[in-house]
Amino acid sequence: MMSLYNKTCQECSQLITNRYSTSFSLGIKVFDKRFRTPIYAIYGFVRFADEIVDTFHDFPKAELLQRFREDTYRAIEEGISLNPVLQSFQEVVHAYKIERELIDAFLDSMEMDLFFDRYEDSLYKQYIYGSAEVVGLMCLRVFCEGNNEMYESLKAPARSLGSAFQKINFLRDMKSDFDERGRVYFPGIDFTHFNNEEKLTIEADIKQDFDDAYKGIVRLPKGARFGVYLAYVYYINLFQKIKKATAARVQQERIRVNDRKKIYLLFQSALRNGLNIL
User: Fold this and answer.
1) Could you tell me the CA-to-CA distances from 81 to 1, 105, 129, 149, 168 in Å, in that order?
2) Exposure winner among 62, 206, 262, 273, fewest CB in 10 A?
3) pTM of the full structure
4) Going from the N-terminus, what domains does the chain have, and what CATH number goes with each?
5) What does the pLDDT look like over 128-155, one tens digit per residue?
């Protein structure tokens, strides 16, 4: 009963998404039904790879990541895996023709976290591309459903949105990244001397990414537009909270949008979507 196995694997990826991310879970739930399962599969894949490098401190991370990489490629080549996350992911790779280059770039960026704790300009751009922008491109492959002309026209905004999300994550998680992993992602930034002027420069860069991303969101297929817009709205609100905080506060705590606010933003965004005023 292959269909039962596939459905069970897909449900595993959905469970992972729901457990790890309230924001993305809510966003996915408002996608057209045909998009939900493949996006869950992509999130499950990237989430577990990220867990290897960020969480498994008492285990051989490099070996585990290499094994995960090999198992990923084997699952794609053979069209089957006993790892439910990889089984659901390889289905999506084949169904939507997700390029090997995107998968390689993502896994390479995860590997970078094993060897680098400072990211100067070229490494920073490479890491942002591999860890975030390509995830947006994988999702875009799903949304475009084989329409290459649409995909090519929306690639740049999709990359900008992934970039904005990741840079906000870096600001939000600045304390834990430094305290727990010794990492500072922003080029030229000394965590111990991080100041408001440096923060403003980073925020200007993020705003430009958001501005570029929005131009693509409004052109997404109808069944995907609202879900992506909702994630955009959540992150814009998180960005506004971070902007209001001082550099010192960003160094001391993880700023977040509470669940009640997220529900409010959901209904507000649904209204705007219904009125077609995104």
Assistant:
1) 15, 21, 27, 32, 34
2) 62
3) 0.91
4) 2-274 (1.10.600.10)
5) 999 999 999 999 999 999 999 999 999 9
